[in-house]
Amino acid sequence: MLRTAALLALLLAAPAVAKDTKPRLRTRVALGPQIVPSYPGADSYSVRPFLEFSRARGDDVFAFEAPDESFGFPILRDSRFQFGPSLGFEGERTARDVGVAVPKVGFTVEAGGFAQYHLAPAIRLRGELRKGIGGHKGLIGSISADFVARDRDRWLFSLGPRLTLADTRYQRAYFGISPATAAATGLPAFRTDGGVQAVGITAGALRQLNRRWGVTGYARYDRLVADAARSPLVRGFGSRGQLSGGVALSYTLGAPN
Q1: HSE-up of 130 (CA within 13 Å, CB side)?
Q2: Which residues pair with 198 in a beta bridge?
Q3: Residue 54 pLDDT exceeds 50
């Protein structure tokens, strides 16, 4: 009877023991400012939030995320491949922003997906495709590669090329000039097509100051090409060179003391 009672007590205690031995979940949140072009093709800049969110369990390192990629999370993954939804945003563009009477492009929520593949522990390829909901209503995509050097979570440096692509609707929203707009502004009519919009490069860095606090930042340069670069709006009122960058302070929840 005593042996049976002892066995039952052991079985009831087993889940609690398993729960106690489960690796601790760590959450790292980074927040700070970033400067980005006020709209695609602009020569002016806006300040927006720079936010990063990562999770890891136990002694696992935080997964690499490029600082300029859109928000997303994997729903399908293995040791090298990940796939999942992505979400981005683009601010509105008004005639006042441009300096000439062009149609307004409203604030846009961009929803879509991403896929990424690690060719090696230090080399990651990623592609994104998002559809504009409201605003430009077009398709915007990117192809990127990153070389990543790191010492676990103590420090990290990444560097890699970027290729931005857009469909005809997106291109015409920001770079096209319709006959009606040409008549109202005196600018030449300009018809754009989809394709490559820009080529660029991004560098990112992260430094952990102690177990909880750290700092992260990035710098990116894009050069508009093809129809986007030839647009009279870019040549007369904007810039083919597009700079962006940001810095943030990070805090890790659940880090051991």
Answers
A1: 25
A2: 164, 224
A3: yes
Task: Give the single-character DSSP code of 125.
Answer: E
| CA 152 to chain CA centroid, nearest Å | 22
Q: How far apart are CA 56 and CA 187, in angstroms?
A: 53
Count CA atoms closer than 13 A to 142's CA, side-chain side: 27
Where helices occur in 123-238 by DSSP H, the ranges are 168-175, 179-185, 226-230, 232-237
CA neighbours closer than 13 Å in the CB half-sphere of residue 146: 25
pLDDT (tens digit, 9 = 90+) per residue, 135-158?
A: 999 999 999 999 999 999 999 999
- CA-based radius of gyration for the chain: 24
Q: Are strands 71-72 and 195-208 parallel, antiparallel or unpaired?
A: unpaired
Residue appearing with tokens 């003391």: 257
Average the pLDDT over each of 12-16, 102-106, 176-180 and give the range with the smallest value: 12-16
pLDDT of residue 227: 96
Phi, psi of 226 (to 5 degrees): 55, -135
For 244, the token pair is 């962006």
Can you give the pTM of this predicted structure?
0.86
Picking from 160, 115, 169, the residue whose alpha carbon sits closest to that of residue 138 is: 169
What is the pLDDT, as a whole number, of residue 22? 75
pLDDT score, position 5: 44
Q: Give SS3 for 235.
A: helix
* pLDDT, position 6: 43
